[in-house]
Amino acid sequence: MFNPLRFLWKVNSRFKSWDEKDIKKYQRKQIKKLIKHANKKSKFYSTFYSGYDLTNFSNLPFMNKQLFMDNFSQLNTVGLTREECIYHCLEKEQSRDFSEYYKGYLVGMSTGTSGNRGIEFVSKIEAFLMQLLVFFRFPFPKTKKIHLAFILRVFSPGFGHNGVKIRITYVSPLDTIETIVEKLNTLNPNLISGPPSVLQVLARAKKDRSLKVSPLLIISYGEVLSLNVKKTVEKDFNCTVVEVYKSSESFIALPCKDGKLHINEDTTFIEVLDKNNEPVEPGKPGFVVVTDFIKRKTPIIRYKLNDLITIDPEPCFCGSKFRVIKQVHGRADDIILGKKIRNDDLQFILPDFIRRSIISSSEHIEEYNVIQTSPTNLTIKLQLVTNVKEQIKEEIEKTIQQNLVNIFTKHDSEVPNIEFLYVSLKQDFDKKLRRIRRNFEEDFLK
Ligand SMILES: [Zn+2]
């Protein structure tokens, strides 16, 4: 029987007292158990690993989103098919009702920092363990009761929580900024968590006093937090901004009381590798390869993310030997600006709206870029899977067009002219990773 108190004690003692030897020993044991489990329970992994020496972890082949998606039906250990999960996700996108379990699992569509469309899949116990990890390890400010407003594109039913010490309220980022501000003013939380693109806009609302809340701490997640945005948000809110680093595949890192981002070495194994898949020394950036110890229903083993991170060569003052991420060099999409219908003002439209309007339109899209050249002009570059018929292209354009009409109209903005281009989009990881780009600057966003 799972005992949360034991988990609490372990979570804290592991973080505080383990040295590098303890961490390595624990990880080796967990990796061994995980590979055995995957090889036995997942049809995909047993084929994928055939011919490999399972005791030689660093020789095992890499996973990635494409492989994960292509083989989802054989990869998960509970017998769900890829088609039924995608169907469920698309239905949710349409109804925007994210409150239901699917056959007892949390199934959602990820658009996050790691790339094109993916399935996020978590069992109830896995979600519970991740929540406990955050509750017990996160350095919440010392106050009578935490009231956290979580600006989250949630797919977890029952995510909201109202306990003795912590209350969590979910605020959808798919609302307009005005609605988010209004909700926050009503909720009056003492902690706010949201993606930096939202935090940046909220900082502006705080500055012009339409947003009246004064949080003790702000938590950034979901997109890369640049130093500039961190400084602006900290200045306008007059409080500290810390970062958490989570992908659909794993809860990678949490901040400590000193604000440093520590890898959750006891729930995830992170390799930082160069282009030739050789380990990179701390202080230099490398690709993130993740192996997750919590997700047993969809085993995540040597899964390559599109993010790059740099490990801090310096130890943290808090004393924990869990590695510190000095910098996450991931994707940072731009906010799109709409031209309001009633006057010449501009309206913020969060990049997540745009990402979802594209990825939910078709399965044939492999990669995409959106470039906004003016408030009334959008260029959408699409890289499709091979051999797509003209008719499908027309359908994709029509669906994206309709999705964008809905978004801009909802934001009281003129629908822009949309140009579609079909090109090959090669990811350049040495540059800033962005899919949604606005190539004009407005004074208030500087
Ligand atoms: Zn620390």
Tell me about this structure.
This protein is α/β, with parallel strands linked by helices. The protein has three domains: 4-128 and 246-329, no CATH class; 139-243, Rossmann fold (3-Layer(aba) Sandwich), CATH 3.40.50.980; 336-445, GMP Synthetase, Chain A, domain 3 (2-Layer Sandwich). The chain is 32% helix and 25% strand. The chain has helices spanning 4-17, 20-41, 43-48, 65-70, 72-75, 82-95, 124-137, 177-187, 196-207, 227-237, 351-359, 390-410; strands at residues 105-110, 118-123, 146-151, 161-162, 166-171, 191-194, 217-220, 240-243, 245-246, 251-255, 261-263, 268-273, 285-292, 303-311, 324-329, 336-339, 346-349, 365-374, 377-384, 417-422, 436-438. Strand 19 (377-384), helix 12 and strand 20 (417-422) form a beta-alpha-beta unit. Helix 1 crosses helix 7 and helix 11 (351-359) runs antiparallel to helix 12 (390-410). The longest helix has 22 residues, at 20-41. The model is unreliable at 428-432 (pLDDT under 50). Bound molecules: zinc ion. Zinc ion is lined by residues 256, 258, 260, 262, 316, 318, 320. Residues 256, 258, 260, 262, 316, 318, 320 line the site of zinc ion (ZN).
